[in-house]
Amino acid sequence: MDKNTIIAIVLSTVVIVVAFVLQPIIFPNTRNANNQTTETVENTENVVESSSETELSNSILTVENTSGIENAETDEEIIAEENFVVQTDLAKIVLTNKGGDIISYELLTHQDLDTGRGIELSDNVSDLNRTASIALGPVDTKIINDVFETKKIDDYTYLFTKKYVKDGKSFILGKRYTFMPNEYMFKLDVLVHSDESINFDNDGVFYTIRTSPQIGPHYDPKKNRYESRQFVAFGGNKYKRTNLGTGQFKRYDKEFIWSGIAGKYFVELMIPEKSDIINSGFYSTQIEVNDYSNAQALIERKAYNGNDITDTYYLYFGPRNNKDLKRYNVAEDNAWGFGGRKLTECIQTSGLLNWLEVALKYILEMINKVVHNWGASIIIMTIILKAALFPISKKQSMGTLKMQEIQPKMQAIQEKYKNDQQKLQIETQKLYKEAGYNPASGCLPMILQMLILISMFNLFNNYFEFRGAMFIPKWIPDLSTGDSVATLKFNLPLIGNQIRILPIIYVVVQILNGIVTQFGGMTSSNGGNNASMKFMTYGLPVLFFFMFYNAPAGLLLYWTVSSIFQIGQQMVINKIMKEKKAEMVMGKKDENRVLPPKAKKASKGKVSKTKKLNKKL
Fold this sequence. Notes:
By secondary structure, the chain is of the alpha+beta class. The protein has helices at residues 3-26, 50-57, 322-325, 354-371, 374-416, 421-435, 440-462, 502-519, 527-547, 553-592, 597-616; strands at residues 69-71, 83-87, 91-96, 101-111, 118-120, 134-135, 149-154, 157-166, 169-178, 185-193, 198-210, 230-234, 239-243, 249-252, 258-262, 266-272, 278-284, 296-306, 309-319, 486-492, 496-499. The strands form four sheets. Strands 1, 7, 8, 9, 10, 12, 13, 15, 16 and 19 form a ten-stranded antiparallel beta sheet that branches. A hairpin with a 2-residue loop joins strand 7 (149-154) and strand 8. Helix 4 crosses helix 5 (374-416).
């Protein structure tokens, strides 16, 4: 390795270190994104059911002043704070009578590798912030912290009620949760009953309701750059996806029929049965009392003047994947009879390339049905893709060689017509036609490979089935996270405390791939190009090592296997190019050789055959 190469590697490493140090200072961790149509779910009447009226009217409790709403006076004993557990096949939910809120929502079928328990979707709760909590007023109003009276209706249904007074008129506020077996969706009814009409108006808002303070699983935004928290919303025609940084609090001022917070693999969606009750939506990552960023969606309910209210919200707390979400697109496919809201719009996609991602995912799933190992499936699909793209890669390399062959003539034309651009263009096209060279033939393969690369990146980075999918025990137990062979008690600069092998293999293979490509004569003898290629060969892999050190193992496995087979294909292409160059040299020698008159005819035949062969290649 020469001096220039070593300097290139050192400089690239310095650039990486400086970029990592300055990035959080100059560019705060914020990012951005989009779409379709919808039907409406059948509306319920804006009246509390008669059974609910009886349940509500029998509840008398004590509260403290909240947004102009006062306690109803009572001599009843103060009710003790208490928790209630509801368990379905999919989740274990803990409800509290303090505010009638959710304080734990543990997914039983999806494990958090850090805690060894189910994924906790109701995380970071406190007296300042709980899941499905209500504030009687706009978004900046404190949540209700009063203890509610509790009624267990059945194993899956709980009703929490509280009596308040507003403007001298008493009313009962209720929250009724209904869960179902084998459903990630549950229902929350916000109920109000009063014998008199009351104007619930606080700056145009009746109350604010919210998702969890933080959706699990735990992650450190500074270390895990491949995890994220997003605000998602769907308005019937347009889909909104916004990656969240820290310390944000923003109003979402567009109309929507649902909104929520999404992680890489799990999502919380809040869907009002009647979207016309929404005043505004918000998303927040402001930190209250926690050790990592909040990520929460909030909905303000419009002001209301009346006596009886039933506001129904459907909440989906579960996997962010097509299999589980698509059940709620069609009413007949779920026990709730819920449909027409296109919840699958919240899934991560490749945008315009989504069709390609769907096709690649289908191929991957078909392979996995045979081999029953997602890691092996990735390797097999990568081999299939590389084999399918080989003819295109070969054509691209041959085009590069042909361009090198006509380069002297090209330079002569450029020098001759440097002051006549129109003539230069005509003569250049004429030269391309005579040589059988199409400039676009080199771009098309690159574009196609780039499209596949982008789709594969999104697929392997977000594919739900990779979560917890083992490839090789004790090395790659989970394709959705980085591989790990050891954990240090301290953090190494730029890479953390995990010792990983796959990124090292990936970088070595990338360097070998660059060397083989250069060996094939793909580079020019021009010094500047040589320096550039040395940086591409040695400097970029060093950069990629730090960029992708904590990348999901599934993604790195694809890139590594792809590079390994690229080396093999490049060696084959190098051999073909070497033979082609030899033929080109022989053809030129035959053209320039002085021959006797009788030999000229035979020589012309050989040259003609060589030209035909060149044209075919």
